[in-house]
Amino acid sequence: MQVDTWDKLLNIAFMIFWFGIWTDHSREIQYNPFLAPITRWLQTSIKFVRDIFSSLSDRAICIFILLLLLAFRALAFSFGNTSWSLTFGIVQIGSPPAGHFFHAFLFSLCSLGILLFQIWSISLFFVRDRRQTAFDNSRGALYWLARPFCDARLELRPAILVGAGMLLAIAMQIASNPGLNIITGSGGIVPLVARAFIIALGGVASVFAILRGALIVLIIGSWIAMFTGSHGLMMFCHNWTGTLMGPLRRYPLRIGPLDLTPIVMIFLLEFIHKLLMGILRNSYSNLF
Fold first, then answer.
1. Residue 279 has pLDDT above 90, yes or no
2. Which residues contact 249 (CB under 8 A, 6 or more apart)?
């Protein structure tokens, strides 16, 4: 298995503890079929280390474990003979040279940050506020996984998202280049900020490709559920497909019993993704 695949799998595991930092014991989580398994895994993990951290709250334990796991990944990748790279928006950046633990830890943190940025970007399109998620399991899962971003006012979220993306882009450059001086290097601070802004926009645009891939997986999953009679898988695919379809779900395009609306949505997402990424790549290459 490639390093990038392990990296993505580790980030998904790390998200359990990020969820634990911002979660509570509300009924919304307990009765959400997408969040309940995460809660059980989280509680099992906390119970396993409770005797060691008896004086700490559950939130503090999640923070400590998350930092410890990020540091462990940094050690594993920084002192090994592996090639580790991160893709964010329109750029791909390689890991720092072996032996630079601080920069490797920052790189590990950036890796998790990219996943968080993607979840925040998706929630920007589908989650308005907590009240909207009360009777929608998929939007409820997005809300809790995207906290604290979804707790900000809706009109401020785009600016917060782009700002977080810019900080992430700058942090990735610092992490991959131990000798980089962000003030004097790379042409100065103004070009650095401009590059980070375009990269952040590319990070938002890349979400359309993620949504396209998710819809393809959900369509295949619904076919499998139909032929195997799996009610749980069918419910999962139907719920998430309805959410990701957005306004198009109100205007289904059918040919007999066949619903072609998800196929139309996939091609639409592909077109938007290629258009935006093409514009941003051209802008990035022409300006820098």
1. yes
2. 242, 261
Q: Express each pLDDT in 14-33 by its tens digit.
A: 999 999 999 877 778 888 88
Q: Find the angle CA(163)-CA(164)-CA(169) to the nearest 5 degrees.
A: 100
Report yes or no on whether pTM surpasses 0.85: yes
Among residues 164, 160, 166, 129, the alpha carbon closest in space to that of 144 is found at 129
DSSP letters of 152-198? S-GGGHHHHHHHHHHHHHHHHHHHH-TT--TTTGGG-HHHHHHHHHH
The string of pLDDT tens digits covering residues 71-125 is: 998 888 776 666 788 899 898 888 787 777 888 899 999 999 999 999 999 999 9
CA atoms within 13 A on the CB side of 85: 8
CA distance 17 to 40: 12
Give the whole-angstrom CA distance, residue 125 versus residue 55: 40
Distances (CA, A) of 288 to 18, 191, 277, 281, 284: 36, 8, 16, 10, 6
- Report which residue type is found at 173: Q
If one counts every other C-beta atom within 10 angstroms of the C-beta of residue 42, the result is 19
Contact 78, 95 (CB under 8 A): yes
Residue 120, Cα to own-chain centre: how many angstroms? 7
CB atoms within 10 A of CB 220: 11
